[in-house]
Amino acid sequence: MRRTMAVAAAILLLAGCGGSGDEEPAAGGGSGAPGPAGGDALSGQLTVFAAASLTESFDRIGQDLQARNPSLFITFNYGGSSGLATQINEGAPADVFAAASPATMTSVVDKGEPVVFVRNQLVIAVAKGNPKGIAGLADLARPELKVALCAEEVPCGAAAKKALAGVALTPVTLEQDVKGALSKVTLGEVDAALVYRTDAKAAASDVDGVEFPESAGAINDYPIVVLTDAPNAAAAEGFVEYVRTEGLTVLTEAGFQAP
Amino acid sequence: MTERRRGRVIRRQRVPAALLVPALLGLAFLVLPLAGLLIRAPWGTLPARLAEPQVLAALRLSLLTATIATALCLLLGVPLAWLLARVEFRGRRLVRALVTVPLVLPPVVGGVALLLVFGRRGIVGQWLDQAFGITLPFTTAGVVLAEAFVALPFLVIAVEGALRGADARFEEAAATLGAGRWTTFTHVTLPLVAPGIAAGAVLCWARALGEFGATITFAGNFPGRTQTMPLAVYLALERDVEAAIVLSLLLLVVSVTILAALRDRWVGAA
């Protein structure tokens, strides 16, 4: 429902900025601030669909970029990557798509040329101070523990399944995205959840992240793309460029690895 | 006789275009999305998709939990409605307002609220866990609870309306003939408002069947235990749209069938 609202909001915003394409050259020429791509400043309405795990980083990157380009307005639509892909395939207007797995990217029909911009690894999110003494994946199989995973349909679930090969684990819930799994730990309803390292880091005041070696075999590549029929291709190119250069600092600070 | 006269009046009346056009647009707005499901449905693979064990498990769980939730609502809601309709007490208007809050509350908020009360660290949940070892989140009982929370107001409102509409003189007559309050309630009041209760139960059941937000927040999502049809639809959308359409269609058919069959019999008669 939250995603539908975001899409509806994006559509309204786009409809409202229908004329912005004409103003683009004027705004680019008038503004003194050079864009991150080295050329003209970015302007107009930009809609970015991004995996839920990118929320904190992309919000910051978006703020930085908007500060440098006053006539640029970025709308983010965060959610499970696969759901976002479905929305794009069903005609939701988007300029940029950043997914949490290449498989999801493949499912987008009219994409451009995706590039991997960061990688993410799973950790075990546990309550602050790790009261249950969870040291690794094998501990998660302890019968008294309640564990939340992402559903296999979303990338964090697919990665979890890969990492858990050989561990007999029955989770209590299969959440629709990584934030759902994390919040069940934050609320204390489960003892552990497999989430991205970046999510555990973002919630460091509530949870600890326990690293485990098996996660190296289930690293998620994050591809980003300017969509073929992007309403604002110029700004979209600028956004992707910025994410891959200066934005990378924000992303690595959040716990992502450079590709 | 009155029926015939009423029918004639309607036929003779000219419907002004200013009312007819928006009315038809409104109808189209409600019906078109449903038609969209029918148009996009992958009819060829429909039987195979419906026979998938995960679909059947979700449907079975949905029907089971909605029915138990409705039973729970009947057990608690009918007395509550009676209290609101028949007993004068201070703060009755406030109580009535509180009872209807879940109607307008976003279901996700309901789920969060349930989690804070019945969760492992919740006020009631903590005690349930320590004293009896019972935890409600991530269980089928949790699904029932979430569904009952959002569906109960529908039952209470329907039954209270029926009670207010019912002639209180029958109850007074029973009382003057020596019947106690309980006997009056079971032998006079209940049969009098039975159609209203039935209508309320149907609405309640339909609402419980469609519950999504409170369920996924409070009970989580696990196939066979807490994954009801609306949750299965949402997750199917992550994987492939056709599967989501098939599941949506199934839920639509179940809801419409039940509403059509029961509304004509009970709501229509009331």
UniProtKB/TrEMBL annotation, chain A:
<dbReference type="Pfam" id="PF13531">
    <property type="entry name" value="SBP_bac_11"/>
</dbReference>
<keyword id="KW-0732">Signal</keyword>
<feature type="signal peptide">
    <location>
        <begin position="1"/>
        <end position="20"/>
    </location>
</feature>
<keyword id="KW-0479">Metal-binding</keyword>
<protein>
    <submittedName>
        <fullName>Molybdate transport system substrate-binding protein</fullName>
    </submittedName>
</protein>
<comment type="similarity">
    <text>Belongs to the bacterial solute-binding protein ModA family.</text>
</comment>
<dbReference type="InterPro" id="IPR050682">
    <property type="entry name" value="ModA/WtpA"/>
</dbReference>
<dbReference type="InterPro" id="IPR005950">
    <property type="entry name" value="ModA"/>
</dbReference>
